[in-house]
Amino acid sequence: MTRLIGTVSLLALVAALGAGSALADTKDKKIALSNNYAGNSWRQAMLRSWDKVTKPAVTAGIVAAADPFTTAENQVTEQAAQIQNLVLQGYNAIVINSASPDALNGAVKEACDAGVTVVSFDGIVTEPCAWRIAVDFKQMGKDEITFLKEKFPSGGNVLEIRGLAGVFVDDEISKGIHEGVAENPQFKIVGSVHGDWDQAKAQAAVAGILPSLPDDIVAVVTQGGDGYGAAQAFKAAGRKMPTIIMGNRQDELAWWKEQKDANGYETYSASIAPGVSTLAFWVAQQILDGKEVPKDLVVPFLRVDQSGLEKALETTEKGGVANVEYSAEDAEKVVGAAAKK
Question: Which structural domains are found in the chain, ordered by start?
Fold first, then answer.
């Protein structure tokens, strides 16, 4: 369903959309990306993936424009105003990574009423007129506890690092973690901090709470972008290094590799791929082309296990995130699979 994409061939892009009909139907359409936050490596990788796939699509004449816009620091009111402006600017579709699942619904409904296609991804919206693309974030959180249950059958104390407060993704992953702990009461969450999916912020938050926590922390459950920061905080405090669930960032994977080589350190890493933005682009393009697309699309999260660490690290650029990007053909497969359910 997904694959790594290098330089996108313009001919391949056209061919993937069929014998010219889709190209003719959307060549005059404009698609915008409304992104609520760009302050961490995942968001930067997401924006790079968007450009990597959409710029050749524009050059090939598949769409007339695919312009990215980012608001400051997860501001709902600013993103709502941005969406309204994009409608006024004549965009035919808006792809949204939303600051809130429901606070943007008014602006989204206005866009839909104006005839604009709205596709949300990662941070999705609940307005029924919009499309949604996400992984099962709650299951992603529960899987962390499942892994720990196998590694620590007797349980133990756990520190939770959350993401951006008030964002759907943060809420769902945390719900999954807490559901997993409720089903496995041998584990106890003894502290919870927000790291904003950012290594430096996570390190500061963990350093601030560590003095108040028990000495026997067995694990740190995370959401992505905070594993390396957590490790540095434990190291600086002279604390025993717990099992830290990673989030596919290159610095996390590199640190994990160093520890694995030195002492057999074992964990796993998982995150939604930043390239999901490119799936959202192709889904929007297909909707504009008149295709029938289910309103809810679920994609698997990208997981790196102990045996796949070296390969994942080799293909992840320094400072980046393990990633996959989507082609038009990939999007058609995702849509087709959802339509069969």
Answer: 10-135+273-303+328-340 (3.40.50.2300), 137-245 (3.40.50.2300)
Residues 125 and 143: their CA atoms lie apart, in Å, by: 24
Closest by CA position to 298, among listed 172, 127, 135: 135
Tokens 């579709």 locate to 93
Q: Which residue has 């790594």 as its token pair?
A: 4
The pTM of the full predicted model, rounded to 2 decimals, is: 0.83
Say if CB 133 and CB 276 are below 8 A apart. Answer: yes
- Length of the chain in residues, anyone? 341
Identify the CA nearest to 148 among candidates 268, 307, 233, 247.
268
DSSP readout, 239-251? Answer: PPP-EE-B-SBHH
Provide φ and ψ at 83, rounded to 5°.
-60, -45
pLDDT in tens, 47-87: 999 999 999 999 999 999 999 999 877 789 999 999 999 99
Please, are residues 80 and 125 in contact by the beta-carbon 8 Å criterion? no
Centroid of chain to Cα 272: 4
